[in-house]
Amino acid sequence: MNSPKSSTILHAKTLEEAIEQYPEDAARELERLNFEEKMVDFVAGAWKYIDPNPYKYGWHLEAIAEHLQAVTRGEIRRLVINVPPRTSKSSMVSVCFPAWTWAQSDIGPLSGPHVQFLYASYAQSLSIRDSIKTRRLLESPWYQRHFGNKFKIVSDQNTKVRFDNDKGGYRLATSVDGALTGEGGSLF
């Protein structure tokens, strides 16, 4: 799988020189930085890998993304998101948020590929659905092109319910009647 090619543009002495000498690499690096900085743009870029329906921007997606970014920065410790059904809350929170968090270059307690996620739904089938979508996103050519050098999914723990990466992060799916005894996590 491809990794970001920022190393070629590092040979340039200025941004202008990088854009002139390596326009495709410079454009890809700027796009990657934008996806990493703004979760709402990350979701827009990732959308076709998680949902067959076209992406439709809405102000509420920006609000959800800004609050999730604040969680990653440690500014919000408890967050409840109340929006009507079918407004992309699961796609943002349960599918894209772990992938976006693991893509972060600024490593902190709640950002980077070491973050551990526990996701619970009222139904195990919904938890598994979103876990599968997250894993498909992580394995997509789009994600690998932009963030493929940050971590790898480990082969010995790669199931629908739980998958781990080689940096200590994982995503575990359960339901309210499921068992989590002995499990921990950074974000629930």
Blueprint (SSEs and pairs):
Layout: H1 6-9, H2 15-21, H3 23-37, H4 39-46, H5 59-72, H6 89-102, E1 116-121, H7 124-139, H8 141-147, E2 153-158, E3 162-165, E4 170-175
Parallel strand pairs: 1-4
Antiparallel strand pairs: 2-3, 3-4
Helix pairs in contact: 2-3, 3-4, 4-6, 5-6, 6-7
Description:
Helix content is 45%, strand content 12%. By secondary structure, it is α+β, with helices and mostly antiparallel strands. It has a single domain (38-175), classed as P-loop containing nucleotide triphosphate hydrolases (Rossmann fold), CATH 3.40.50. The protein has a four-stranded mixed β-sheet, with helices on one face. A hairpin with a 4-residue loop joins β3 (162-165) and β4 (170-175). α2 (15-21) packs across α3.
Q: At the third CATH level, what is the topology name?
A: Rossmann fold
Q: How much of the residues is beta strand, in percent?
A: 5-15%
Structural class: alpha+beta
Q: In order across it, which strands form the biggest sheet?
A: 1-4-3-2
Report low-confidence residues grouped into runs of 5 or more. Answer: 1-6
Number of strands: 4
* Measured distance between first and last alpha carbons: 30 Å
Q: SSE string, helix = H, strand = E? A: HHHHHHEHHEEE
Q: Number of helical segments?
A: 8
What is the second-level CATH architecture?
Answer: 3-Layer(aba) Sandwich
